[in-house]
Amino acid sequence: VQLQAFGGGLVQAGDSLRLSCAASGGNFSAYRMGWFRQAPGKGREFVAFINKSGTVLYSRDSVKGRFTVSRDDSKMTMYLQMNNLKPEDTAVYYCAAHGNRGSYASPSEYDYWGQGTLVTVSS
Predict the structure, then answer these.
(1) Is residue 59 very low, low, confident or very high in pLDDT (cuts 50, 70, 90)?
(2) What count of Cα atoms within 13 Å lies in the side-chain half-sphere of residue 118?
(3) In sequence order, what are the beta bridge partners of 10?
(4) How confident is the model at residue 41, as a pLDDT?
C-alpha cells in the first residue's frame, strides 16, 4: 500500500489543523494505522493509532484530548484532527500502516510509511 500524508502548514498556537493520509494500491481496510511525528533533532514519536474496527489509542497526555484520529475506509483515508495546537507540536507528521505484529507505538512494527507533512506552530 502507498500512503500520502498532507494537510500540514504554518499555524498559530491555539489553531486547528486536520491531517489526511490517503492510501492507494492496497486493501486499506485491512490495515491498522498510526500517526507519528518527528521534531527537529528528535526521534520519531508515536502520536495515535487506530485499528480496523475504529478503536483508537493515543500517546501520552500531551496530545490526548486535543488530537483525534479517525478513518474512512470508503475513501481509503485516515485523519488526524489537531486542536489547540501548541509550539511543541511542531514536527513532521507521518502516517503508517502497521505490520500486524508487535507494539502499535513502535515505528519498527510499521511496514508502510507516507512521506510526511510539516506542521509548524508559532507562539
Answers:
(1) confident
(2) 4
(3) 120
(4) 94
Q: What angle do CA 27, 1, 38 make, to 5 degrees?
A: 125
Residue 11 has pLDDT above 80, yes or no: yes
Three-state SS sequence of the chain: CEEEEECCEEEECCCCEEEEEEEECCCHHHCCEEEEEECCCCCEEEEEEECCCCCEEECCCCCECCEEEEEEHHHCEEEEEECCCCHHHCEEEEEEEECCCCCCCCHHHEEEECCCEEEEEEC
Query: Average pLDDT in the 69-89 region?
Result: 97
* Best CA proximity match to 43, nearest among 105, 121, 122: 105
The per-residue pLDDT for 106 is 93
C-alpha cell belonging to residue 80? 488526524
pLDDT tens sequence across 35-55 = 999 999 999 999 999 999 999
Instruction: Provide the grid cell at 66.
Output: 486535543
Q: How far apart are CA 100 and CA 119, in angstroms?
A: 28
The x, y and z cell numbers of residue 115, run together, are 512521506
